[in-house]
Amino acid sequence: MDKVFRAKRTRAKIHGTSDRPRLAVHFSNLHITAQIIDDDKKTTLAYATTVGAKMTGTKTEKAALIGADIAKKAKAAKVSKVVFDRGSKLYAGRMNALAEAARKEGLKF
């Protein structure tokens, strides 16, 4: 129940625009997904996931790889600034690794 309230509280304050789209991150038990979304136009500008990818390592290492990948795809889509949407997850561990890898590749949030 706490996750639902945390997700609603987080997403109530976050809205992606054309100038600053939303970087939405989702962690399942097996996979990691990151999307850059323009909420005004309701379109996905960039997308990175571990589904179907041959990645080895820990979940934290995979999160860092996805963070770097989404930042490169954002750069290709001419996006440099985003609003970070962590959903119901706390900013620690895998979430931190993904965010730091994206920042290291030049994505600003």
What is the structure about, briefly put?
This protein has 109 residues and is an alpha+beta fold. The chain is built from 3 helices and 4 strands; from the N terminus they run αβββαβα.
Largest sheet: 4 strands, mixed
Write down the secondary-structure element order.
HEEEHEH
Number of strands: 4
CATH topology tier name = Nucleotidyltransferase, domain 5
Span of the ends, CA to CA: 28 Å
The level 1 CATH classification is Alpha Beta
- Count of individual helical segments: 3
What's the domain count? 1
Main-sheet strand order equals 3-2-1-4
Indicate the structural class: alpha+beta
Low-confidence stretches: none
Q: How would the blueprint of this fold be written?
A:
Elements: H1 2-12, E1 22-27, E2 32-38, E3 43-49, H2 59-76, E4 83-85, H3 94-104
Parallel strand pairs: 1-4
Antiparallel strand pairs: 1-2, 2-3
What can you see in these coordinates?
There is one protein chain. With 109 residues, the protein is of the alpha+beta class. The protein has one domain: Nucleotidyltransferase, domain 5 (2-Layer Sandwich). The chain has three helices and four strands; from the N terminus they run H-E-E-E-H-E-H. The protein has helices at 2-12, 59-76, 94-104, and strands at 22-27, 32-38, 43-49, 83-85. Strands 3-2-1-4 form a four-stranded mixed beta sheet. Helix 2 (59-76) runs parallel beside helix 3. The termini are far apart. The model has no long low-confidence stretch (mean pLDDT 90).
